[in-house]
Every structure is written in C-alpha cells, then in structure tokens.
Amino acid sequence: MVVSNPVFVRDGQASLVARDVRKPARADPATGAFQGYEETARTDVAAAVLEPSVNVPYYGVVSPEAAAAAGMRVDDSALLVQFSAYPDATQADKMTAALAGLYKDRFGTPHVERGAERDASLILWSIVGLGALITLSAAGITTGLSMADSRKDHVTLAGVGASPRLRKALAGSQALMTAGLGTMLGSVAGIVPAVLLVTATGMARTAVVPWLQLVALLIAVPLTGAALAWLFTRARLPVSRREVDRACN
Fold first, then answer.
1. Is the pLDDT of residue 12 over 50?
2. Which of 21, 36, 74, 228 could form a disulfide with 100 if both were Cys (CB 3.0 to 4.6 A apart)?
3. More confident residue, 120 or 224
4. How far apart are CA 100 and CA 94, in angstroms?
C-alpha cells in the first residue's frame, strides 16, 4: 500500500479500518463529543510513504491484488452526481447515510468537488478590471493625440464633403486597434509564463482556464474602448472658412 502521509505508517505497516457509517460509535463520556462510527474490521498491510506534490482527496492507494490478499473485497465502481448547489454539512450527512444504506458493505467514501473558489474568481475579475482600466486609459490617450495630430486632415475631409460620422468612425477604429493589440499582447505575455509554470509543476491536469475572463479582456474591453471613442468624439470640428479654404487649396 502507498500512503500519502507518514503519520499513518508504523513499523512499515498501515491499518485499513472499515467502519459502519450507519452506526455511530459511543460518544466520549466526559465531553459527549462525536467519536466517529463503529469499527467492523481492521487489516494491517505493508505500506510505503509517497507524499504527493499536490493535494489529493485520499490517504493511500492499494492494488486490487494486495486488497484481495488481505481479505478485503474489491468493488471497482463509482457514482457521479451533479448538485445544483454545494451541499452543507447536514445534506452531506444525509447523502452519506443514504448511500451507506443503498450500497451497504460496498460503500466507499463520498468526495464532493468544491470547484473554483469565490475568492479566486474575485481575484481574476480584479485583474481583468485593472487590465481594462490600463488598456482604456492608454487607448483613450493614444486616440486623443492621434485625432489632434490629424486635425488638418479631418478639416480637409470635411471640406471635400466627407460625412461627419467619418471622424467618429476613425476614432473608434483607432481605439479598437490600440485596445485590441494591447490586450492581445498583454494576454500572451501572461499566458506563456503561466503555461510554462503549470507544465513545470505537473499541474496541467488540474489547471482551469478562465475562459470568461479571457473573453472579457480580449473582446469586451477593445469593443468598449471603440464604443467610448466613437461616443465622445465630436462629429463636426469648429473650423473657420479660412481653414477650409487652406485645406482645399
């Protein structure tokens, strides 16, 4: 048997204990504290310790042959259930009791996957918000300077009869290109080290890609920047007749 924690091994042996979850053990006479469930069988097997590099939801692994040699019944089966919400302690106890009554001596240990933590999601959205603020600020400054620098060109376009909306469209396209290029390069700069780190630490199987946050950063932020540039850019420039004549000549 391979054990994940050395505390369970004594003199090269580990004890496999079977308990009946339908029968609670006697409470502590002094404190009345819960003492677990009644022990129905105990088997000592040879054990070696191998501490995992990541958290695992079990304490040890035993081969079917070793389990059969120790007189243990092997039943390789599992039941997967999807809940609408994470069960609380009371619901988990009811589930355990129901499964124990259904599977009896073939019942194993239920494990509930918690999924992504709320704090992690909050951190991710905070990163997206900070990235959006930096990107929109840079796109706004770049677009404003570009529009000011090309004022004469816009006067020329207005003098030859260009649509007033053309200036707003130019501002929106410049903001879209600036914000889109910035978010794309920033995402690549963050994704590449993350992939290398996950691969080097052997966490590829447990890694979760935040697709929603990536979509918000790569698509929603540039579109928002383009919309803001189009909205706040004046369609018509206040120009004098002399400026128009110069532009046309």
1. yes
2. 21
3. 224
4. 10
Q: How far is CA 31 from CA 28, 35, 93, in A?
A: 6, 11, 22
Task: Tokens for 213, please give them.
Answer: 């946050």
d(CA 205, CA 56): 13
Pair 183, 221: CB distance under 8 Å: yes
Of the candidate ranges 88-97, 115-124, 159-168, 181-190, the one whose mean pLDDT is the lowest = 115-124
- How confident is residue 247, by pLDDT bands cut at 50, 70 and 90? very low
Q: What are the structure tokens assigned to 77, written together?
A: 């089966």
- Helix and strand numbers (H, E) in the chain are 8, 5
**229-232-236-241 Cα dihedral, nearest 10 degrees:** -100
HEC states along 220-243? HHHHHHHHHHHHHCCCCCCCCHHH
Vertex 58: Cα angle to 57 and 61 (nearest 5): 140
Tokens found for residue 89? 């302690």
How far apart CA 210 and CA 191 sit, in angstroms, is 11
H or E element at residue 134: helix 118-149
Say how many C-beta atoms besides its own lie within 10 A of residue 2's C-beta: 14
Distance CA 141, CA 138 (A): 5
pTM of the model: 0.50
Closest among 162, 140, 157, 138 to 233, alpha carbons compared:
140
